[in-house]
Amino acid sequence: MAEENVVYVGKKPPLSYVLAVVTLFNNGHNEVVLKARGKAISRAVDVEQIVKNRFLTNVVTKEIKTGTETITTPDGKTVNVSTIDIVLAKQ
Predict the structure, then answer these.
(1) Among 28, 32, 79, 84, which one is least packed by beta carbons within 10 Å?
(2) What are the structural domains of the chain?
């Protein structure tokens, strides 16, 4: 999958990411991937639900992938962080 249809969810308000997803769909993409790690996972799910229920009712959740990434902190410790990829597609 190309990186041009990926929205990385972080600390911004959910509607910022909703706008990014809607913009990508309006620019001709048939699939958009929401990616999030750690505490931002719940925000990514919120974005998915807002897009599907309020803005683009013809969009469905095609796939949800979960996983774990190992990250090294600045002080040298390794930490496991949960990840999620939510693939949204036009019907």
Answers:
(1) 28
(2) 3-90 (3.30.110.20)
Q: pTM score, two decimals?
A: 0.92
Helix-strand-coil percent breakdown of the chain, rounded to 5? Answer: 35, 40, 20
Q: Which amino acid is at 46?
A: D
Integer angstrom CA distances of residue 4 from 14, 25, 32, 58:
20, 12, 9, 21
Q: For residues 62 and 30, is the Cβ–Cβ distance under 8 A?
A: no
Nearest Cα to Cα of residue 29 among 10, 8, 51, 2:
2
- The CA-based dihedral angle spanning residues 4, 78, 37, 40, taken in that order and rounded to the nearest 10 degrees: -130
> pLDDT digit string (tens) for 8-42?
999 999 999 999 999 999 999 999 999 999 999 99
CA gap 81, 20 in Å, rounded:
24
